[in-house]
Design goal:
The structure is a homodimer of 136-residue chains. With 136 residues, chain A is an alpha+beta fold. Chain A is built from three helices and eight strands; from the N terminus they run αββαββββββα.
Protein backbone atom coordinates (compact mmCIF):
# COMPACT_ATOMS: atom_id res chain seq x y z
CA UNK A 1 0.00 0.00 0.00
CA UNK A 2 1.21 3.47 -0.87
CA UNK A 3 1.06 6.39 1.49
CA UNK A 4 -1.01 9.19 0.00
CA UNK A 5 -2.36 12.42 1.34
CA UNK A 6 -5.70 13.90 0.41
CA UNK A 7 -6.02 17.43 -0.88
CA UNK A 8 -7.18 18.86 2.41
CA UNK A 9 -3.88 18.18 4.10
CA UNK A 10 -1.38 18.64 1.32
CA UNK A 11 -0.79 22.32 1.84
CA UNK A 12 -0.02 21.66 5.50
CA UNK A 13 2.68 19.21 4.46
CA UNK A 14 4.30 21.50 1.94
CA UNK A 15 4.13 24.46 4.28
CA UNK A 16 6.39 22.55 6.68
CA UNK A 17 9.27 22.73 4.21
CA UNK A 18 11.91 25.40 3.68
CA UNK A 19 12.52 25.75 -0.05
CA UNK A 20 14.47 28.98 0.35
CA UNK A 21 18.00 27.66 0.79
CA UNK A 22 18.31 25.99 -2.60
CA UNK A 23 16.35 28.37 -4.82
CA UNK A 24 13.03 26.59 -4.52
CA UNK A 25 14.30 23.07 -3.89
CA UNK A 26 14.71 20.76 -0.94
CA UNK A 27 17.09 17.82 -0.83
CA UNK A 28 15.46 14.39 -0.89
CA UNK A 29 17.16 11.27 0.40
CA UNK A 30 15.53 8.02 -0.65
CA UNK A 31 16.01 5.00 1.55
CA UNK A 32 14.92 1.38 1.13
CA UNK A 33 11.97 0.72 3.38
CA UNK A 34 13.10 -2.84 4.12
CA UNK A 35 16.87 -2.65 4.45
CA UNK A 36 17.57 1.03 5.23
CA UNK A 37 19.99 1.08 2.30
CA UNK A 38 20.28 4.57 0.83
CA UNK A 39 19.08 4.31 -2.74
CA UNK A 40 19.59 7.81 -4.15
CA UNK A 41 19.71 11.51 -3.42
CA UNK A 42 17.91 14.11 -5.52
CA UNK A 43 15.99 17.37 -5.27
CA UNK A 44 12.33 18.33 -5.19
CA UNK A 45 10.51 21.60 -5.71
CA UNK A 46 7.07 22.35 -4.31
CA UNK A 47 5.29 20.68 -7.24
CA UNK A 48 7.41 17.54 -6.97
CA UNK A 49 6.50 17.20 -3.30
CA UNK A 50 2.82 17.77 -4.12
CA UNK A 51 2.89 15.14 -6.86
CA UNK A 52 4.71 12.70 -4.58
CA UNK A 53 2.01 13.15 -1.95
CA UNK A 54 -0.98 12.83 -4.24
CA UNK A 55 0.32 9.83 -6.20
CA UNK A 56 2.27 8.08 -3.46
CA UNK A 57 5.12 7.71 -5.96
CA UNK A 58 8.44 9.46 -5.44
CA UNK A 59 8.70 12.42 -7.80
CA UNK A 60 11.69 14.71 -8.07
CA UNK A 61 12.77 17.85 -9.87
CA UNK A 62 15.39 17.38 -12.55
CA UNK A 63 17.78 20.32 -12.49
CA UNK A 64 19.36 19.29 -15.79
CA UNK A 65 16.03 19.04 -17.61
CA UNK A 66 14.12 21.67 -15.61
CA UNK A 67 11.08 19.49 -15.14
CA UNK A 68 9.33 17.14 -12.74
CA UNK A 69 10.56 13.61 -12.94
CA UNK A 70 8.62 10.69 -11.55
CA UNK A 71 11.13 8.01 -10.70
CA UNK A 72 10.49 5.05 -12.97
CA UNK A 73 8.60 6.97 -15.65
CA UNK A 74 10.88 5.46 -18.31
CA UNK A 75 12.22 2.35 -16.62
CA UNK A 76 9.15 1.32 -14.64
CA UNK A 77 11.38 1.27 -11.56
CA UNK A 78 8.95 3.23 -9.43
CA UNK A 79 9.28 4.02 -5.75
CA UNK A 80 6.19 3.62 -3.59
CA UNK A 81 6.44 5.95 -0.63
CA UNK A 82 5.89 4.26 2.73
CA UNK A 83 7.01 6.96 5.16
CA UNK A 84 8.15 10.56 4.95
CA UNK A 85 10.46 12.22 7.46
CA UNK A 86 11.55 15.86 7.57
CA UNK A 87 14.82 16.94 9.13
CA UNK A 88 15.31 19.38 12.00
CA UNK A 89 15.70 22.47 9.84
CA UNK A 90 12.98 21.56 7.34
CA UNK A 91 15.15 21.59 4.22
CA UNK A 92 15.71 17.86 3.72
CA UNK A 93 13.08 15.20 3.16
CA UNK A 94 13.54 11.48 3.66
CA UNK A 95 11.40 9.15 1.59
CA UNK A 96 11.31 5.57 2.79
CA UNK A 97 10.19 3.59 -0.24
CA UNK A 98 9.39 0.23 -1.73
CA UNK A 99 11.78 0.24 -4.68
CA UNK A 100 10.80 -1.68 -7.81
CA UNK A 101 13.88 -3.38 -9.33
CA UNK A 102 16.50 -0.67 -8.79
CA UNK A 103 17.00 3.04 -8.16
CA UNK A 104 20.12 3.74 -10.21
CA UNK A 105 20.03 4.32 -13.96
CA UNK A 106 23.42 2.62 -14.22
CA UNK A 107 21.86 -0.74 -13.33
CA UNK A 108 22.51 -0.92 -9.60
CA UNK A 109 19.93 -1.07 -6.85
CA UNK A 110 21.51 1.97 -5.17
CA UNK A 111 23.33 4.92 -6.71
CA UNK A 112 25.99 4.42 -4.01
CA UNK A 113 27.63 1.35 -5.53
CA UNK A 114 31.21 2.66 -5.33
CA UNK A 115 33.30 2.88 -2.18
CA UNK A 116 36.56 4.77 -1.80
CA UNK A 117 39.56 2.65 -0.98
CA UNK A 118 42.71 3.78 0.81
CA UNK A 119 44.39 4.66 -2.48
CA UNK A 120 41.65 7.13 -3.31
CA UNK A 121 40.19 4.84 -5.95
CA UNK A 122 36.57 3.81 -6.26
CA UNK A 123 35.89 0.11 -5.79
CA UNK A 124 32.74 -1.39 -7.24
CA UNK A 125 31.03 -2.96 -4.22
CA UNK A 126 27.59 -3.86 -5.59
CA UNK A 127 26.29 -6.17 -8.32
CA UNK A 128 24.30 -4.94 -11.29
CA UNK A 129 20.66 -6.01 -11.15
CA UNK A 130 19.62 -4.93 -14.65
CA UNK A 131 21.16 -3.97 -17.97
CA UNK A 132 20.60 -0.23 -18.62
CA UNK A 133 20.89 -0.71 -22.37
CA UNK A 134 17.77 -2.87 -22.30
CA UNK A 135 15.75 -0.45 -20.15
CA UNK A 136 16.54 3.11 -21.26
CA UNK B 1 39.73 3.08 14.01
CA UNK B 2 39.11 6.03 11.72
CA UNK B 3 39.55 5.87 8.01
CA UNK B 4 42.15 8.38 6.85
CA UNK B 5 43.86 9.05 3.59
CA UNK B 6 47.46 10.16 3.24
CA UNK B 7 48.42 13.20 1.25
CA UNK B 8 49.53 11.26 -1.79
CA UNK B 9 46.02 10.05 -2.54
CA UNK B 10 43.84 12.91 -1.39
CA UNK B 11 43.79 14.77 -4.66
CA UNK B 12 42.66 11.61 -6.42
CA UNK B 13 39.69 11.41 -4.06
CA UNK B 14 38.64 15.00 -4.45
CA UNK B 15 39.08 14.89 -8.19
CA UNK B 16 36.37 12.22 -8.34
CA UNK B 17 33.77 14.72 -7.18
CA UNK B 18 31.62 17.14 -9.16
CA UNK B 19 31.36 20.39 -7.21
CA UNK B 20 29.91 22.29 -10.17
CA UNK B 21 26.20 21.70 -9.64
CA UNK B 22 25.88 23.44 -6.28
CA UNK B 23 28.34 26.29 -6.65
CA UNK B 24 31.32 24.50 -5.18
CA UNK B 25 29.48 22.10 -2.90
CA UNK B 26 28.50 18.45 -2.89
CA UNK B 27 25.68 16.99 -0.84
CA UNK B 28 26.77 14.75 2.02
CA UNK B 29 24.52 12.12 3.58
CA UNK B 30 25.70 10.77 6.90
CA UNK B 31 24.59 7.32 7.92
CA UNK B 32 25.13 5.33 11.11
CA UNK B 33 27.77 2.69 10.48
CA UNK B 34 26.05 0.16 12.76
CA UNK B 35 22.33 0.60 12.13
CA UNK B 36 22.15 2.28 8.69
CA UNK B 37 20.00 5.01 10.25
CA UNK B 38 20.37 8.29 8.36
CA UNK B 39 21.79 10.77 10.84
CA UNK B 40 21.92 14.03 8.90
CA UNK B 41 22.34 15.68 5.53
CA UNK B 42 24.68 18.60 4.90
CA UNK B 43 27.05 20.03 2.31
CA UNK B 44 30.80 20.00 1.80
CA UNK B 45 33.14 22.06 -0.33
CA UNK B 46 36.53 20.86 -1.50
CA UNK B 47 38.26 21.91 1.73
CA UNK B 48 35.65 20.17 3.88
CA UNK B 49 36.21 16.93 1.98
CA UNK B 50 39.99 17.34 2.31
CA UNK B 51 39.73 17.94 6.05
CA UNK B 52 37.39 14.97 6.44
CA UNK B 53 39.90 12.75 4.69
CA UNK B 54 42.99 13.91 6.57
CA UNK B 55 41.40 13.87 10.03
CA UNK B 56 39.00 10.97 9.59
CA UNK B 57 36.32 13.16 11.19
CA UNK B 58 33.28 14.30 9.24
CA UNK B 59 33.66 17.97 8.32
CA UNK B 60 31.07 20.01 6.44
CA UNK B 61 30.64 23.46 4.99
CA UNK B 62 28.20 25.71 6.80
CA UNK B 63 26.27 27.79 4.28
CA UNK B 64 24.81 30.01 6.97
CA UNK B 65 28.21 30.77 8.53
CA UNK B 66 30.32 30.47 5.37
CA UNK B 67 32.97 28.35 7.03
CA UNK B 68 34.15 24.78 7.55
CA UNK B 69 32.41 23.02 10.37
CA UNK B 70 33.76 19.88 11.97
CA UNK B 71 30.80 18.02 13.38
CA UNK B 72 31.17 17.94 17.16
CA UNK B 73 33.52 20.91 17.41
CA UNK B 74 31.25 22.46 20.05
CA UNK B 75 29.32 19.49 21.38
CA UNK B 76 32.02 16.83 21.22
CA UNK B 77 29.58 14.73 19.20
CA UNK B 78 32.11 13.83 16.55
CA UNK B 79 31.63 11.46 13.64
CA UNK B 80 34.45 9.03 12.89
CA UNK B 81 34.33 8.12 9.22
CA UNK B 82 34.35 4.38 8.55
CA UNK B 83 33.48 4.25 4.86
CA UNK B 84 32.93 6.73 2.05
CA UNK B 85 30.73 6.09 -0.97
CA UNK B 86 30.21 8.34 -3.99
CA UNK B 87 27.03 8.25 -6.04
CA UNK B 88 26.70 7.52 -9.73
CA UNK B 89 26.96 11.12 -10.89
CA UNK B 90 29.70 12.14 -8.45
CA UNK B 91 27.79 14.95 -6.73
CA UNK B 92 26.70 13.21 -3.53
CA UNK B 93 28.93 11.65 -0.90
CA UNK B 94 27.86 9.12 1.70
CA UNK B 95 29.78 9.03 4.97
CA UNK B 96 29.22 5.94 7.07
CA UNK B 97 30.25 6.98 10.56
CA UNK B 98 30.64 6.04 14.18
CA UNK B 99 28.50 8.76 15.79
CA UNK B 100 29.39 9.92 19.30
CA UNK B 101 26.22 10.60 21.33
CA UNK B 102 24.01 12.17 18.66
CA UNK B 103 24.05 13.96 15.31
CA UNK B 104 21.26 16.48 15.79
CA UNK B 105 21.72 19.77 17.61
CA UNK B 106 18.14 19.48 18.83
CA UNK B 107 19.08 16.54 21.07
CA UNK B 108 18.13 13.59 18.88
CA UNK B 109 20.43 10.94 17.52
CA UNK B 110 19.21 11.65 13.98
CA UNK B 111 17.99 14.90 12.47
CA UNK B 112 15.09 12.90 11.00
CA UNK B 113 13.11 12.51 14.22
CA UNK B 114 9.77 13.70 12.79
CA UNK B 115 7.51 11.66 10.53
CA UNK B 116 4.57 13.00 8.55
CA UNK B 117 1.21 11.55 9.50
CA UNK B 118 -1.85 11.30 7.28
CA UNK B 119 -3.11 14.68 8.47
CA UNK B 120 0.03 16.40 7.23
CA UNK B 121 1.32 16.88 10.75
CA UNK B 122 4.75 15.96 12.03
CA UNK B 123 4.82 13.28 14.71
CA UNK B 124 7.80 13.03 17.03
CA UNK B 125 9.02 9.47 16.57
CA UNK B 126 12.37 9.47 18.36
CA UNK B 127 13.49 10.05 21.94
CA UNK B 128 15.87 12.81 22.95
CA UNK B 129 19.27 11.50 23.99
CA UNK B 130 20.74 14.73 25.35
CA UNK B 131 19.63 18.17 26.50
CA UNK B 132 20.81 20.80 24.00
CA UNK B 133 20.74 23.54 26.64
CA UNK B 134 23.48 21.71 28.53
CA UNK B 135 25.67 21.14 25.48
CA UNK B 136 25.52 24.27 23.30
Amino acid sequence: MRVKWDCEHIEAVVDQLDFSKLNGLVTVITQDWHTNEILMCAFANRDAILQSLTTGLATYYSRSQNRLWQKGETSGHIQEIKEIYIDCDDDTVLFKVEQKVAACHKGYRSCFYRRLNENGELDLVREKVFDPSEVY
